[in-house]
Specification:
Blueprint lengths: L4 H21 L7 H8 L1 E5 L15 H10 L4 E3 L6 E3 L2 E6 L5 E6 L13 H12 L17 H5 L11 E5 L2 E5 L7 H4 L10 H6 L22 E7 L3 E6 L13 E5 L4 H9 L14 H7 L4 E14 L9 H9 L3 H8 L28 H10 L11 E6 L4 H16 L3 E6 L1 H9 L5 E7 L6 H4 L16 H12 L3 H18 L2 E12 L4 E2 L15 E2 L2
Parallel strand pairs: 1-10, 12-13, 12-14
Antiparallel strand pairs: 2-3, 4-5, 5-7, 6-7, 8-9, 9-10, 11-14, 11-15, 16-17
Helix pairs in contact: 1-2, 10-12, 16-17
């Protein structure tokens, strides 16, 4: 019989909660929480924001997916060093010579955290769920390479058995593709394609219902190295080591506590007070100080990410591509990177980061004030005349408001237009983008794998993460052409044309590329820099 994860937390974690509470209350001089956590092998981890959900096929925020990496596991996992796929729930896999058929072999003895056997059919039912039109999953398009997946997701094919998914036996999953997809092994490592337990979901209202109680402590059944022990909103999420994980003997950590602290300054103070082992971020203003005084605690890792502006093209005047292009051309990205971001983030003159799977965009967006003024005048607003005051929504971190203040000044000086800034919590900021409840918004996208498609596929018409309202048949045609192109060089050439078109039409304006600056305690071992941001907690440990 499986051990109760809630009971496990109550026994192992009570002392930690007491020590954290006492420290926060300032009750005398006490041992830092990180020291007592070292003895109990409890990793104290900053996570940046309160989770929206813990359903792998519902969440879209990277901070939410960060917790899912502890609770679930895909067929493969992302290796931190290489960003390539490595065995996880599947011990091996192979493809046919034409690249249209993939076979994954599950490990023997795989179990869910409640002790149930995990089978290949569980993966099939999970993927049918994310593709079901009524479920409206934002990441359903990840599975479009599978035969008939796109037609089923769009409702033109009604029979789920027509999908290219089959299970010859409980440990074999066979996938038939509509087109060769050489990156398919890394695709199945991503959180939206994690398996969910069909029987548990049925018990809590059905496979295609969102926001049910199955993701709450005591109900959530996963297949990862940890189980959900506690979730106190806006305080912490606690996960405990799962005795039913296939590689449980190699897992050193007994618990992980995720803290949803959105303010980087608060996190930095918590780190100095010994309340976190690893922070989510670090205020830019303090990077130089740590680099000088405590370099062993500072990490600045490369991160495959682009920060950009979204324009709601359904709202005038942003329905005019000349306006969007003018606003983008009036931004001095190099100045922002140097003066506002202190050199911590490279300026983004393209949407796709450089050297992304052998692809570097040729199209660029550079500062061109004269052209920006010409375009704005052609759109009927010479010198900004008649241009309505508008709001830009930003996340409440220490970076985005400062960046937008600089852009706000540039637009006012160079174009004569005026913007206000609204600072929002992450949850509201994301929801507004999803619902097109904004005029202009900051945004960020972390690449799922090393290939330009993970960035450029965002903006296809009706795409689950295309929160701009933009739909362009010409762009869709180029993305489809790239998907159907087998020759690697020719495929990347098609993407070059697609990115050039995207930047010219301007539903988004790239600003700067990602980097991950954070603090880490010396006791944390096995925390390897990860370009894609995915860490395998099964290999993280705490040592004196």
């Amino acid at each position: 019989m499986a051990r109760n994860p809630v009971a496990l937390w109550s026994r192992l974690g009570a002392a930690l909660v007491l020590s954290l509470a006492a420290l926060a209350a300032g009750c005398g001089r006490r041992e830092p929480a990180t020291e007592s956590a070292l003895r109990s092998q409890t990793l104290l981890l900053g996570n940046g924001a309160e989770p929206e959900d813990l359903d792998p096929q519902v969440v879209t925020a990277y901070t939410d997916q960060n917790i899912l990496l502890a609770l679930f596991e895909g067929l493969t996992a992302v290796d931190e060093k290489t960003s390539q796929a490595v065995p996880a729930a599947a011990e091996s896999w192979e493809s046919s010579p034409d690249g249209l058929s993939w076979t994954f072999h599950l490990r023997a003895g795989l179990r869910w955290s409640n002790g149930e056997k995990l089978t290949a059919d569980d993966f099939i039912q999970s993927w049918q769920r994310i593709l079901t039109p009524a479920f409206a999953a934002e990441y359903a398009n990840l599975l479009y390479p599978i035969k008939n997946a796109e037609a089923f997701n769009q409702g033109t094919l009604l029979d789920p058995s027509a999908l290219g998914l089959s299970a010859p036996d409980v440990r074999t999953l066979r996938i038939e593709l509509a087109r060769p997809t050489p990156y398919f092994p890394i695709l199945v490592a991503l959180p939206p394609l994690f398996p969910v337990n069909p029987r548990v979901l049925e018990h809590f209202g059905g496979l295609t219902k969102r926001s049910t109680a199955w993701t709450r402590p005591g109900n959530l059944i996963g297949n990862g190295p940890f189980t959900l022990g506690e979730w106190i909103p806006n305080a912490r999420v606690v996960v405990a080591k799962s005795p039913n994980y296939w590689n449980a003997d190699a897992v050193t950590l007994r618990q992980i506590v995720f803290f949803p602290v959105e303010n980087p300054d608060t996190e930095e103070r918590d780190f100095r007070a010994g309340q976190e082992h690893v922070t989510w971020s670090l205020p830019l203003a303090k990077v130089a100080t740590y680099r000088r005084d405590a370099p062993d605690r500072l990490r600045v890792d490369p991160f495959l990410q682009t920060f950009f502006l979204r324009f709601n093209v359904k709202r005038p005047p942003f329905d005019d591509p000349r306006v969007r292009r003018a606003l983008s051309l009036a931004i001095n990205r190099d100045q922002i990177a140097e003066r506002v971001l202190s050199g911590g983030y490279p300026p983004a003159h393209s949407f796709t980061p450089p050297d992304c799977g052998g692809y570097t965009a040729k199209a660029r967006v550079d500062l061109d004030v004269a052209e920006a003024r010409r375009l704005l005048a052609a759109a009927g607003h010479p010198g900004g005349q008649g241009f309505p005051r508008f709001e830009v929504q930003v996340r409440n971190d220490d970076v985005q408001p400062a960046v937008l203040e600089a852009i706000q000044a540039m637009w006012s000086k160079e174009l004569g237009i005026h913007a206000t800034i609204a600072t929002l919590e992450q949850k509201t900021w994301i929801e507004n983008q999803q619902n097109l409840a904004y005029a202009v918004s900051t945004a960020g996208w972390a690449g799922d794998f090393l290939d330009p498609v993970t960035f450029l596929d965002l903006f296809v018409s009706g795409g689950g993460n295309n929160w701009t309202g933009w739909a362009d048949p010409s762009y869709d045609r180029m993305i489809r052409q790239a998907a159907a192109t087998v020759d690697p060089a020719a495929r990347l050439a098609v993407f070059q044309g697609a990115e050039d078109y995207l930047l010219a039409q301007g539903p988004v304006a790239p600003l700067y590329f990602g980097a991950h600056a954070y603090l880490i305690a010396p006791q944390v071992k096995g925390w390897i820099p990860a370009l894609l941001g995915y860490h395998r907690y099964a290999f993280v440990r705490l040592e004196k």
